[in-house]
Amino acid sequence: MYTGSVLTQSMGETLVQMTAEYNSYEKYDEEPMSKCTDYSKAFYGTSTVGERGQVVIPAEARAELGIHAGDKLLMLRHPAHAGLMMFKIEAAREFLNEFSAMLEGAETKEGNS
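The structure corresponding to this sequence follows.
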């Protein structure tokens, strides 16, 4: 079982590896996926669940992601692992709009073939 700094180091190394692998893929006719997050910078630390189920979001994460008291967050179960993913509602909406535009572009491109 991992604990403390061993867990942090292991996760950091895994995230660096994931970033390298992810950035090696290319989109169809576009440049390599340069917009992809550097996963080695995506780890903010750990948080302990309180008695009432509350979790403190690290200050660095709140500052970097613009999360403020009163913001609504979307909580999702990770599709492949036992974990949670948290998004600001606005960020989720922005992603869905971008994804929708990509789908429309793909349908248009497919229709012209």
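Strands lie at 73-77, 84-88.
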